[in-house]
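Protein modeling request. Please complete all fields; requests missing the sequence field cannot be processed.
Requester role: graduate student
Desired output: 3D structure, token encoding
Chains: 1
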Amino acid sequence: MDEINQARAEFAQLESVDRGHLHQVIASCRTIDAQGRELTKMRDPTIHRLPVELLVLIFSFVMVVHPYHGESITPAVIGHQRKNLASVSRRWRDVILTTPTLWHAIYLTSRQDRCTLMSQLKRSQGVLLDITITEHADYFVICKSLPYLHPTMNRWHSLHIWNLMEYPNLIRELSKSEFPSLVDIEIDASDFDLDYSDLRNLLPRTPALKHLTLHDFIATDDFSITSPLESLELICDKCNIPPSLLLRISNNSLIMLCLVGDTYAWALKPNSIHFPLLEELSLCITHTKQLLAAIIAPKLQHFDLAYNQCQWDIIGMLWSKFSSMHHLELMFNKPSIFTDPLNGVTLCQAFPNTRHAEFLCVKDLLSLLMPIALPENSMESQTTVDSWANLEKLSIHLGSRNPNEEFRSLVRWLEAQQEFGLPKLHVKLRSVANAQPDLPALSILCCKLWRCCILELDGLPLSLCQCLICFTH
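Delivered output (473 residues):
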């Protein structure tokens, strides 16, 4: 019994020691946890611990203002991005003031302050500059700024001129200088016609020019560009495009070509114009058939055809001429693809490897969705669109107030695809400017489409998206 009592006493003693050690460990853990919380409070917020490179990338997206789609740049906007960001913290201010790439965008306005301009040019420290001159700029104020800008013209990277009334005089002034680094020129004359005679002396002074965009352009017979352009956009709504235009540019380097205007006077021979590198072609011209017959573009990937009405003889003559093309856009102002399966066959044969097809109206899809006659017990496709074996995405512009009836064939086809166990197609619905869709009817359509495709909504009311979210949950 004495041995048992002695063992119990020793065990109790050891248990007491262990309990003491446990309390010490718990107390130590609590102390470490408290110290950790104190250290966390003392650390800067996560956003202040971002690397400088990531901060600069974020700032670059916030600071630059692009006057696209009619959006104007006002003096009140310019510089506010930098000021607001620099006021967040001393670190942000130091990053902004010491990063030259955040000072590359120069916006010239009527209220141009010489000291501000000089300060910005100094902080840019030799990086390439993007120059934007907007409708808010006064020609005489710009001319007063040119002497300060002249030493930097060797590092101008882009020049954008928007709706400037005195743009011919400005271009004449700029034509007195050289621009060895200028890669991108975009001029939107808007209410003022842009004549090639105004550009004749400027373009030869831009040997590095790669991208040229001219809106409301009046091309003359002597139009010529010696620089090896990669992209050319000519919007000639108010005049004819000269027949010799494509013969006076460097076709061997062109990757993107966009032409808008009249081409009645053109007389091109079939397969006479070779674009070895052309990947994107956008046309809204009056004599499309002749141009497409003349073009050879083995690397074409993106084809955009816009016109008042579809001309089936144009598409029918292609016959896989653009077989490498995988992105097709048909922007016809009128629902013009008649519901004839032969028209759908013609379209699929002309562009056999289409992966992304975009239509202005869902009615233009009906010829592709109509059942076609097949031999009995045939396992072949039941609709024309099934011959697009690589099709991944359909984009459709919404203009109808009640689209359920028009989309019935598409929904039926998508449901059939699901029944056959095929992957879901990506369908994108895009709103049309000034369109007023019937939201209840559109909500019903979106719910139907959601069941049988990967649905994407672009530019539609947020309330519609919320209804769809509620339905999916």
